[in-house]
Amino acid sequence: MENFNAIGRRKTAVARIYLSSGKGEIEVNKRSLADYFPAEVLRMVVRQPLHQVGGVDQYNIQVNVQGGGLKGQAEAIRLAIARVLCQVDAEHRPGLKQAGYLTRDPRMVERKKYGRKKARKKFQFSKR
Fold first, then answer.
1. Is residue 93 domain-resident?
2. Domain limits at 60?
3. What is the pLDDT of residue 61?
4. pTM confidence score
5. Number of domains in the chain
C-alpha cells in the first residue's frame, strides 16, 4: 500500500497527516497519541473515523499539527483522517459523511472591532 496524505482544519488549528499500512500507531508531532492528548475524550475524537470504517489497527498515522488549542487540534486531525480514509477507499465516504466527519466546521473567533471592548461588546454607556 502506498502512502496517503491529507489536511484538516478547525478554528486556527491545521493538521497534516500521512497514512501508511501498519499496526494502528498514531504519532502526533513526533509523540505518541496518549502523550500528546492526555484526555481520553480527545484521543477518542481522533480515533472516531477509524472506528467508523473498522480500521483502528490497520494503519499507521503520522500527524503534524499546529495552531489552536488541544480540542481544535483533535478535531482538525479527525477531519484529516476522515479525508484520507476516503482516498484509501471510496466506499468509506457515505458512512463518514453520514457521521459528519467530512464536514469542515467553519466557526472561528470573530475579530475585535475598533471602538469596542471585544468583537460585539461595547464600552459601558453613561447617560450623565
1. yes
2. 4-99
3. 95
4. 0.90
5. 1
